[in-house]
Specification:
Keywords: Cell membrane, Glycosyltransferase, Membrane, Transferase, Transmembrane, Transmembrane helix
Main location: membrane
Order of helices and strands: HEHEHEHEEHEHHEHEEHEHHHH
Subcellular location: Cell membrane
InterPro entries: Nucleotide-diphossugar_trans (IPR029044)
Number of helices: 13
Helix content: 40-55%
Mean pLDDT: 83
Pfam families: Glyco_tranf_2_3
Shape: globular
């Protein structure tokens, strides 16, 4: 009985994520992801850059191949004082392409301020934020733009796939985790056009909304320390708070690599945990403005985020950890089966075995029990904490022409 409140929270979140959201998607049909093919505005793609190395070269070239009028598309790269040869690779990619502008910040300013600088350098109607480590499918820009159905829609996010999904057990596990996070978990918020977190990997915004919110975004800090993590979630929340609508579509696709070792995965989870705690706490002040269903979902998620680690520790101390682990194995096993069934039409190279999700049964309680309290004590971290490239001279010469790595084929991907 003492764990009854946490069980209620778990059931509410489970129902909203895996039952109500997908139900709305299926009932509303085509209206769930409506489009407007007549809208073709000017678009500026902004790439905040830090220690990406050669990867930025390939990211830029994938954007130059977009299925969108070249005279309406520009690319702006903002290097945040990278310590490696990223800036040189960006300049190389921009050669022979007048619609590509490469800028360098005078000092390390953080991702959000870098994007804001890029926004000030363009008058394009739509701004698309793209992370420097992604390859963007050639139809992504058009798929994002065609979902701006009316002026109240301020942002539209896209789908991210794991390029190294077959590398090892971690990347296979992350592939399935990404699948549920993007194919299922956003459905409830999508149904009410209040998606609370749009990924910086690939998201489009109305420029005037970013300009409207710039003072708030520039001043973000904790205890006087500028915060440079979780900008994507913070920006999305501020857009919703300002009364605009936010959408998400699985039709706009990009590709990125997952952490492939435990240290990298844990570092990623710690960053995300900080972001979740900071912005879900900040969102409580205006959650009441959301649709009641979305508000209940939001508050329930935050409650579960805080209480779940307590339950794990409680079970460890009382010798009942194996019981809760068994429950996790059953739940994760069921999700693996669902993933396998829903991806049965995909080629083998675009899916992983359903059993690959089983390690999540242990990784989830471990990361929550360890990193939630650690995140609470390190909320004032001011680092990008996203790039681990070895520091080299920014003047390192670029090797001879590197061939463009082709983006993985998007055919057959669920949308």
């Amino acid at each position: 009985m003492e764990l009854f409140p946490i069980q209620i929270l778990f059931l509410v979140v489970l129902m909203n994520r895996y039952i109500l959201g997908p139900f709305m998607r299926r009932v509303r049909g085509d209206q769930f992801d409506a489009t407007n093919d007549e809208y073709e505005p000017t678009v500026a793609i902004i790439i905040p850059l830090f220690n990406e190395g050669e990867g930025i070269y390939h990211a830029i070239h994938s954007l130059l191949l977009q299925d969108y009028p070249p005279d309406k598309l520009s690319i702006i790269v903002v290097d945040d004082c990278s310590k490696d040869d990223s800036y040189v690779w960006a300049l190389k990619a921009a050669e022979q392409h007048p619609n590509v502008l490469v800028m360098r910040n005078p000092e390390n300013m953080g991702k959000r301020k870098g994007i804001n600088r890029g926004v000030r350098a363009t008058r394009s109607e739509i701004i698309i934020s793209v992370d420097s480590d992604v390859i963007v499918d050639r139809g992504a820009v058009r798929q994002l733009v065609r979902r701006f159905l009316h002026p109240r829609i301020a942002a539209v996010g896209g789908r991210t796939y794991v390029t190294n999904r077959h590398q090892n057990w971690i990347t296979r596990m992350v592939e399935i985790k990404f699948y549920f996070a993007q194919e299922w978990l956003k459905d409830l918020e999508r149904g009410f056009r209040s998606v609370m977190c749009l990924s910086g990997c690939l998201t489009a915004y109305r420029r005037h909304v970013l300009e409207e919110l710039e003072p708030i975004l520039e001043a973000r800090s904790i205890a006087g320390v500028a915060i440079k993590y979780g900008e994507d979630r913070f920006l999305t929340r501020q857009i919703v708070k300002a009364g605009y609508e936010t959408l998400y579509t699985t039709a706009a696709v990009c590709f990125t690599a997952s952490p492939s070792n435990v240290a990298g995965y844990f570092a990623q989870q710690l960053r995300w945990r900080r972001s979740n705690l900071v912005d879900m706490l900040g969102g409580l002040s205006h959650a009441w403005r959301l649709h009641p269903v979305v508000a209940v979902h939001y508050v329930s998620q935050f409650g579960l985020l805080l209480s779940y680690p307590v339950v794990i520790v409680h079970n460890v101390l009382t010798g009942e950890f194996w019981d809760i682990l068994a429950l996790h194995v059953l739940t994760v096993g069921l999700m693996g089966f669902i993933y396998r069934w829903e991806t049965r039409h995909l080629p083998d190279d675009q899916r992983v075995p359903g059993l690959s999700f089983l390690p999540m049964a242990l990784m989830m309680p471990v990361t929550y029990a360890l990193f939630t309290p650690l995140a609470l004590f390190t909320l004032d971290s001011g680092s990008w904490e996203t790039r681990g490239a070895p520091a080299t001279s920014a003047d390192t010469p670029v090797p001879g022409d590197a061939p463009l790595r082709p983006a993985p084929a998007a055919e057959g991907l669920s949308s």
